[in-house]
Design brief:
The protein has twelve helices and 14 strands. It is of the alpha/beta class. The protein has a domain of about 240 residues: 2-enoyl-CoA Hydratase, Chain A, domain 1 (Alpha-Beta Complex). The strands form three sheets. A seven-stranded mixed sheet has the order 4-3-5-6-8-10-14. Strands 1-13-11-9 form a four-stranded mixed sheet, with no helix packed on it. Helix 1 packs across helix 10 and helix 2 packs across helix 4. The longest helix has 21 residues. It is globular.
């Protein structure tokens, strides 16, 4: 009976409507298609698994962030930029120091500007792991990236998918090329900036014909499609990317982002959470949550003022549907926006084996 009720709720949720006519698609002719950005694939072996489980020790392998800049803030004010703690050393105690102010706040916003590469994957993995140790349940990735390594984007996206992240692409920020793959991993995606795709560049290729190049790209293309499918996004994104010349950039419209499953709530994550929420918070909670998100998708996600306005619209809409819910406040829609913006005094460092354990992803 419980499963039938859950499936009934899922069936009653209509596809998210798009407010107003979708703007015409546009193409930029000046896309950055250098080896540092764009959508780059390299013929390189996958990184070896860590010799140590970083979830159980403070002895993390050496890693430094060199592909961009990372800042940790403990608030959800989308208008705040350039504040917080900037760090590049990804050693255990460096990440711990950057995140300590967020423990009492219960939320962190990781602001990243730069290319998608192996050090970015390490950044997301380690910040997520430290969040589990500290009990910080609300995590936001505030991204601004022109792309990078496809393989690293897939690995980072799977880590994001396992770590309960909300992803923001704010006004004046971009998420292009390989960065678009990250959106599939988020539990929720709030997008106000430009999202664009183009063809993958194959580095170190020995191809001398279209057929040989196509064969080399086939494996990574299939890997992209498998990644998109397991994370609830449209596999057509991978096919669409292959039709846009790398020197250009095809900007996705709001309607296309909805159609590809790259904005708003993640459909795969919703299915996973629905059964758990019915057991924990009740069927009425899930029905109200579905009704809220239908209204939120229609009234809030298409506002033009930016992420802060989208968030404000959602907060104003929640009381109509009984949220935050008194029984399940942490499960309520937009719960990450309910935590205090000013953290209390920083607590002592956690023990190396304290808190729930999180398996390292690769």
């Amino acid at each position: 009976m419980l499963l039938a009720a859950v499936l009934c709720v899922a069936c009653n949720r209509a596809p998210a409507p798009v407010a107003g006519p979708a703007p015409a698609a546009s193409t930029q002719a000046d896309a950055d298609s250098g080896t540092d950005f764009g959508a780059v694939s390299v013929d390189a072996p996958k990184p070896k698994r860590h010799k140590v489980n970083i979830a159980k020790t403070t002895e993390w392998p050496d890693s430094t962030l060199e592909s961009g800049t990372a800042t940790i803030t403990c608030d959800t004010d989308a208008k705040v930029d350039g504040e917080g703690i900037t760090f590049s050393d990804l050693a255990f105690f460096s990440v711990l120091d950057a995140m300590l102010p967020c423990k009492d706040a219960g939320v962190l916003r990781l602001r990243y500007r730069g290319r998608i590469a192996g050090d970015f994957t390490n950044l997301v993995e380690r910040v997520g792991n430290m969040s589990v140790r500290m009990g910080i349940k609300q995590r936001i990735l505030d991204i601004d990236s022109s792309g990078g390594q496809v393989e690293d984007a897939i690995r980072a996206g799977d880590i994001i998918a396992d770590g309960n992240w909300t992803i923001w692409v704010r006004e004046h920020a971009v998420c292009h090329s390989a960065c678009v793959l990250l959106l599939a991993g988020g539990d929720d995606r709030v997008i106000s900036g430009a999202v664009g795709i183009h063809r993958i560049i194959r580095i170190q290729s020995d191809a001398t014909s279209r057929a040989e190049l196509s064969a080399e790209l086939h494996e990574v293309h299939d890997e992209m499609k498998a990644y998109l499918e397991r994370n609830g996004a449209g596999v057509a994104v991978a096919d669409f990317m292959m039709t846009v010349p790398n020197r250009s950039l095809r900007l996705l419209t709001p309607a296309e982002l909805v159609g590809f499953g790259l904005t708003g709530r993640n459909a795969a994550q919703e299915d996973l959470e629905r059964i758990r929420l019915v057991r924990r918070c009740g069927l009425d909670f899930v029905r109200r949550e579905d009704a809220f998100y239908r209204a939120y998708d229609q009234q809030c996600t298409q506002v033009a003022e930016g992420v802060a306005s989208i968030n404000a619209c959602g907060l104003a809409l929640r009381p109509e549907y009984g949220f935050p819910d008194k029984t399940c406040p942490e499960e309520s829609p937009l719960a990450e926006l309910d935590v205090p913006a000013t953290p209390a005094e920083a607590p002592a460092a956690p023990e190396a084996d304290a808190g729930p354990q999180q398996t390292a992803a690769h």
